Amino acid sequence: MRALLLLAALLLSAPAARADNQDWTQVARGRYLAVVGDCVACHKATEGVAASDYAGGRPIETPFGMINAANITPDVETGIGRWTPDDFAQAMREGRRPDGAHLYPAFPYPWYTRMSRQDMDAIFAFLRTIPPVRHAVNRNTLPFPFRIRAAMIGWNMLFFTPGELRPDPAKSEEWNRGAYLVEGPGHCGVCHTPMNALGGSRSSEAFAGQSLQGWIAPNIGGNEALGVGAWGVDDVVQYLRTGATAWTRASGPMAEVVEYSTSGMTEADLRAIAVYLKDRPPRGPAPPAPLAADAPRMRAGEALYIDNCAACHRRDGAGVAGMIPSLKDNQITVQPGVETLARVVLTGVRSAATDLEPTAPGMPSFGWRLDDQQVADLLSYVRNAWGNAAPEVDVSLVRQQRERLTRGP
């Protein structure tokens, strides 16, 4: 009898499960938060694996080597089927697996740590509802010495500040919601904030943009020339919802963000993100003086533009509203780095496809037709015509990009 009373007391005093895959309100919230966090972009299964958005294996390029994204389906052998809500929260908050091994910040726990425990539990509850997929992923692909996970202890001491993001009482509810989405589950700073030599984010340059994986993750702060400072809130919302505005279209990694994540977010959350980003400090270099119109490189670039680009982007660089991006008054055109521009010219590109913008127009490759010097001259012209102003393009940068694209990641 005493044993039964003790067992009853223990059961009554035990806390309720934080993540309940039968609580469909919590599961639905977790599914939405997984969309906000763009989990599919990294954890989508590689080809040849049973169809799953979360079975992992996709290689993620980092400055230190390639890392394969983990299987986060509830498979008990190769996924997270044995994890508890506390295990999941530990990974999100501290960057550590249940066995204590440190995760690399390619899994953006320095941002996820700012989320509420309630939201972490909701995501875990959702992940428990998806079909388990048996797919073993090699998680130790970094070269020596970067594969030594214990090194993350020192990295965390230098660059990781755990803790939930707290609202700023001096700001509006909408601003604070945007701050939470951008700084937490959306982890926008992973790509758009420059990194130092050790892979830590330079907080003093938050959202000022950087070169990443052979693309430019552009400035998305309040800078009017380089960021979204000159955009209206409605412009930012439209871009995130559809992947397109009247003058630009999302491509490359940002196309995936739009397709997998922001196009599935609510209007209110997109507006909150826009309000927060537009209020960020206008970081980034001041625009230089444009190249003189009669400079030899401008003359050469203009001739190349007329022959190869003007038919679509128009002689005045204005493009076709809603279809072909404008090359003037386009922040991508004048970013300090030219990786995206060179890549688009060399290999072509296809823009994001969403329910509201299903066409996904593409641009053909000109790498077969133009040599490195011609590409450099063409881009120097585009970056300094029609009121644009940006550093001229060195031919060595185009050569490096062509070599990178030829050999692959």
From TrEMBL:
<keyword id="KW-0679">Respiratory chain</keyword>
<feature type="domain" description="Cytochrome c">
    <location>
        <begin position="25"/>
        <end position="131"/>
    </location>
</feature>
<dbReference type="InterPro" id="IPR051459">
    <property type="entry name" value="Cytochrome_c-type_DH"/>
</dbReference>
<protein>
    <submittedName>
        <fullName>Cytochrome c</fullName>
    </submittedName>
</protein>
<keyword id="KW-0813">Transport</keyword>
<keyword id="KW-1003">Cell membrane</keyword>
<dbReference type="InterPro" id="IPR014353">
    <property type="entry name" value="Membr-bd_ADH_cyt_c"/>
</dbReference>
<keyword id="KW-0349">Heme</keyword>
<keyword id="KW-0472">Membrane</keyword>
<keyword id="KW-0677">Repeat</keyword>
<keyword id="KW-0408">Iron</keyword>
<dbReference type="InterPro" id="IPR009056">
    <property type="entry name" value="Cyt_c-like_dom"/>
</dbReference>
<feature type="domain" description="Cytochrome c">
    <location>
        <begin position="173"/>
        <end position="281"/>
    </location>
</feature>
<feature type="domain" description="Cytochrome c">
    <location>
        <begin position="296"/>
        <end position="386"/>
    </location>
</feature>
<dbReference type="InterPro" id="IPR036909">
    <property type="entry name" value="Cyt_c-like_dom_sf"/>
</dbReference>
<keyword id="KW-0479">Metal-binding</keyword>
<dbReference type="InterPro" id="IPR008168">
    <property type="entry name" value="Cyt_C_IC"/>
</dbReference>
<keyword id="KW-0249">Electron transport</keyword>
<feature type="signal peptide">
    <location>
        <begin position="1"/>
        <end position="19"/>
    </location>
</feature>
<dbReference type="Pfam" id="PF00034">
    <property type="entry name" value="Cytochrom_C"/>
</dbReference>
<keyword id="KW-0732">Signal</keyword>
